[in-house]
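Handoff note, outgoing to incoming analyst
You'll be picking up this chain. Sequence as last confirmed:
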Amino acid sequence: MAIAAGSKAPPFKLYNTERKEISSDDFAGKIVVLSFFPAAFTRVCTEQVCNSQDDLNYYNNLGAVVIGLSVDMPFSLKVFKEKYSLNYELLSDFNKRTIHDYDMYQCNFICDLKGVAKRGVVVIDKNGVVAYSEETVTTGTQVNFTALKEALGKIK
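Most recent structure output, in case you need it:
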């Protein structure tokens, strides 16, 4: 199960596609949508990040910051971000610390790939508390973007 709503969001320090360290502290006082995905360039993951890109204005209008997060290396994420013209941060959890902290660790993925992020989303409110958390049933199932938007609409 992904981290429970009402929990204090664990801090993180991860690298973005420019190999710059990004910290959860950088988003203090903001609503954060952490979008976890198993692997760049896979079909469902590509749909997930592109859906977030398509709805980026919606999230921005609510004052929410979208962050994609996977265990892919920053170099791979940079190519992925450029290929799909993503205008939000993709962070690399190559050490797999954050996916453990958020209970989003997937033991097995395709081709016996071990230790990737589960597919899901965690919304952190302005006070650093988890306001919404979703983990999909399988990695082939898409995030429930409607439920995500409803949850965001309830944050004051």
